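Pasting as-is:
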Amino acid sequence: MVTVTGVENDSPFFGKVIPGDALISVNGHDIRDVLDYRYYTTVKNIECVFCRDGERFVCTAEKDEYDDPGLDFSTFLMDKKRSCRNKCVFCFIDQNPKGMRDSVYFKDDDERLSFLQGSYITLTNLSDEDVERIIKMKITPINVSVHTMEPALRVMMTGNRFAGDSLKKLWRLAEGGTGLNLQFVLCRGINDGEHLKYSLEESAKLKTLISASVVPAGIT
């Protein structure tokens, strides 16, 4: 459920929906964020369930295929950004000085931004449900900060005990046809040398691999 903040004049919902109404579903599918909204409103005929003052009502609309329904929402994602749960040994944000604005310290790790804006994610806060949604909606490519294909080493580098297991999601995404751009932040004496060679060899086995970039760590 997401709250409408505006209705465009040429929207098929103009005069029916007002700011403050909550969009609950489209054609029977619950709407949680921008991906749901964009995916389920691509068809010509849509039936939307809204809620106003605790009362639900239905609006139908006919439009051209892929046309936006003309509803505005408070944020681009129609949801809160997902923040990073890691404590990477090389994190440049953690190296920032104190006393700066809050947004400077925010670390996003959001698969929606990976697809829509090209951000890189670590998969550590991606649920199995999220993975299946990516595959179902054919969201591709996804950009992933891997750093190493060795589970134990990845746990150490990210400071997240789930980071090793989350590598399994790479293989599931590849099986589902999702294109993958991988990134390895190279830290001298940690994930370089034979570790890097192994990681690149393993990455090459991903059938939907698009690219694998190696980026030297920057310490400030």
